[in-house]
Amino acid sequence: xxxxxxxxxxxxxxxxxxxxxxxxxxxxxxxxxxxxxxxxxxxxxxxxxxxxxxxxxxxxxxxxxxxxxxxxxxxxxxxxxxxxxxxxxxxxxxxxxxxxxxxxxxxxxxxxxxxxxxxxxxxxxxxxxxxxxxxxxxxxxxxxxxxxxxxxxxxxxxxxxxxxxxxxxxxxxxxxxxxxxxxxxxxxxxxxxxxxxxxxxxxxxxxxxxxxxxxxxxxxxxxxxxxxxxxxxxxxxxxxxxxxxxxxxxxxxxxxxxxxxxxxxxxxxxxxxxxxxxxxxxxxxxxxxxxxxxxxxxxxxxxxxxxxxxxxxxxxxxxxxxxxxxxxxxxxxxxxxxxxxxxxxxxxxxxxxxxxxxxxxxxxxxxxxxxxxxxxxxxxxxxxxxxxxxxxxxxxxxxxxxxxxxxxxxxxxxxxxxxxxxxxxxxxxxxxxxxxxxxxxxxxxxxxxxxxxxxxxxxxxxxxxxxxxxxxxxxxxxxxxxxxxxxxxxxxxxxxxxxxxxxxxxxxxxxxxxxxxxxxxxxxxxxxxxxxxxxxxx
Length: 538
Prior knowledge:
The protein is an alpha/beta fold. The chain contains 17 helices and 22 strands. The longest helix has 31 residues, at 323-353.
């Protein structure tokens, strides 16, 4: 269809950009548009409806930002997606890939400041950009004589029109106390204790995994993430939940009541109206706690009232698993290991002892069936990365009918996969060779293994930030001029998001990292990922 053609989409979007009533510096039109793939909750993974970056660019990765001008279209993404982006940008000759993380790649703000015409206007959907990122862009553009404005409507949605998928609104179910280990009422009390310590009278919660954790509810609005679309606003007296109440199961409502929470329900869409009304009722002594990772639009609703912009107390609470959650995480990993062992044994037998052709897709499908046999299985925690040979270098590779190839004893096979269980979330990577690997493959595997062991056996002070440990994993690789272009490890949720902030182990600092503490679960994500993203320095 012509409507799905990448060039057609860019042409339509640029026409809309010319007609924006920008005001201020220019009377009409914007000279640049910023598009990301996030939703109004700044989620890492998005529903089909929120895949605006993918719609306009063709790029299917989970991270990146697009900038559209009348004579340029650029995508910024990191080392996980360089190869994938080059293969997917549509049309390829209309796009420039900006390799974020390389020394010679400017940031979006720096590039715009250097390439925009004088006194230009840049537009963006303020609901889809965090306060931190908006402030950074605003400061840089303003100092260069430009202007950043929130758009009254999303221009990509206008191009998408009636082909844009509808919003998801699946049922909300309870997370039983035998899995959560702590009542919702107690979690609310701990939040209010933190609010008092920080002199805040209101706490605004926008991160979907934080809301699911706080209420002991789970959903399925976003693929692979057991969350649901909602907002929560805590005061010292009430718990306000912004959601279509008809979506909430009777079991979830009853559990919340039994856990000493009697919420006030509002329509999901009323969050901005409520915030503006709340601000009007606040006194000079009141302070609103809203994370700087929440949308700029919600921060703008707060007006001039005093704000506390640290991460919410829930972010740290859910990162430190309680004894029941720890027990569940261990049990879910044991069951998950059973599924993986069954799969690898089955796969090795098929490759060595039969003529049956097992491919990346059929292998991933079989692994999922082994996981489905395990108790408390809910679904996968992300799309299985079943990758042979060169495909293993595409960091978030997902096989398609066009790319699917057989798994043989002639090339490396990398399987990066995980599952959601009612008592825990898993994320496991294994690299195997069913024949005879080359000497270089052996060396790389050994050096990655040495880094894994160094990190896993290191003793370090309490609350050491994960960023400080990253070098331990890379030392053996760096010594011979090798590296991998991604983080080393990330937080893992308890039947929540497989990538759980604010903790992580990476060459990039995590600004909100509270430091590693007992009860935290992190992946050692570089383990056995040989030959995936090597960069030779010499």
